Amino acid sequence: MHAIRIHQPGDPSVLVYEDVANPEPGPGEVRVRLRAAGVNHRDIWVRQGAFGAFPEPLIPGSDGAGEIDALGPGARDYAVGQKVVINPGLSCGRCVYCLSGQQNSCPHYRILDGTYAEQIVVPVQNVVPMPSGLTFIEAASIGIPFVTAEDFLTRAQATPGQTIVIWGANGGLGLATLQLARLRAMRVIAVVRSQTFVERLKQLGASDVIVWDGSLPISPEVLTMTHSKGADIVVDSLGQASFSQSLEMVRRGGTVISVGSTSGGKVQIELGQLFRRRLTVLGAYMGSSAILPRILPLFARGALIPVIDQTFALADASEAHRRMESHGLFGKIVLDI
Ligand SMILES: [Zn+2]
After folding, report:
1. Which of 104, 131, 138, 214 could potentially form a cystine with 286 if both were Cys, beta carbons 3.0 to 4.6 Å apart?
2. Which CATH code of 3.40.190.10, 3.40.50.1980, 2.30.110.10, 3.90.180.10 fits the domain covering 146-283?
């Protein structure tokens, strides 16, 4: 089969299109003929070596959609040809966290790699039937961003009528958060770096859009919009560039969700700001394995919409990463396989 492999960490040029052996499913596993793979920020970190070096060449990619094309011994409930979406969390399945549906707190939790390929072998519990009405491209764009956003909104007890601020609302995670917040009848204040996104964000349900120039603080604007109270929840995926502002714009007793650090991960916090104002800082990383099967039908019904920025051929994965790193995108980048 054809696949993208990484032999050493580096810039997008280390994503090499190669011929590799077809993987064979073992007991309890299925092989999926992938038709599309969603590109996530995580893939960039993997490529750069943030999760370790590559003793073996690695096929990146965690989100994908395709058709079952082989079943290992004992892999039941699926048939060859059935359309499925990859559910990318791997965990032990036996610990107290797994048994209570919090797989992303399992000590053995990790996100699988390998969807930048024509085929992938995964445990049968890591595929979910793909609803009709979605294309492979759309289905492959949903996983990580929607699972992550749904998990942290649930943990933050996001409630109808509350105000949520979303930094980087034009990205895949930002748009997933926006839509899931609107489903909860929340008021969304979207923060972006370009005027060109404003109309589309409003069409998707943002009440207000702040275009941030990258230097002047926007917390005064948020305080004005919330009658000096502050937002109930602030979703921060930028880190260094935004975190101190997030603490300033959240209300007393409110929650700041830390879900990434695309601008850098070192921040200085005056702890009095946390305890005197009774703030909660909630770290978010993926979510329960139950979320993807639960929300996929909402896409089939049109209650949630996959927003695709651009598609690239599998062989052009390095171009896709360059686009991802340009930060000018609106929605998801997907590889067409
Ligand atoms: Zn476990």
Report:
1. 104
2. 3.90.180.10
User: Identical fold at 2-142+306-336 and 146-283?
Assistant: yes
104: confidence class by pLDDT, cuts 50, 70, 90 = very high
**pLDDT band per the 50, 70, 90 thresholds, residue 51:** confident
Residue 327 has pLDDT above 80, yes or no: no
* CA 91 to ligand 1 center in whole angstroms: 5
**Ligand 1 center to 100 CA (angstroms):** 9
SS3 state of residue 90: strand
- Tell me how far apart the alpha carbons of residues 327 and 237 are, in angstroms, rounded to a whole number: 13
What is the per-residue pLDDT across 113-140, written as a single tens digit (0 to 9) for each?
999 999 999 999 999 999 999 999 999 9
pLDDT tens digits, one per residue of 57-97:
999 999 999 999 999 999 989 999 999 999 999 999 999 99
Q: Does the 2-142+306-336 domain belong in CATH 3.40.50.1360?
A: no
Residue 169 Cα to ligand 1 middle (Å): 32
Question: Is 285:89 a contact under the CB 8 Å cutoff?
Answer: no
The Cβ-side half-sphere exposure at 201, using a 13 Å CA radius, reads 33
Between the CA of 151 and the centroid of ligand 1 the distance, in Å, is 17
77 alpha carbon to ligand 1 midpoint, in Å? Answer: 23
Ordered DSSP codes for 131-162:
PTT--HHHHHTTHHHHHHHHHHHHHTT--TT-
252 sits in which H/E element: strand 250-258
Of the pLDDT bands very low, low, confident and very high (cuts 50, 70, 90), residue 52 is confident
Task: Give me ligand 1 centre to Cα 99, in Å.
Answer: 7
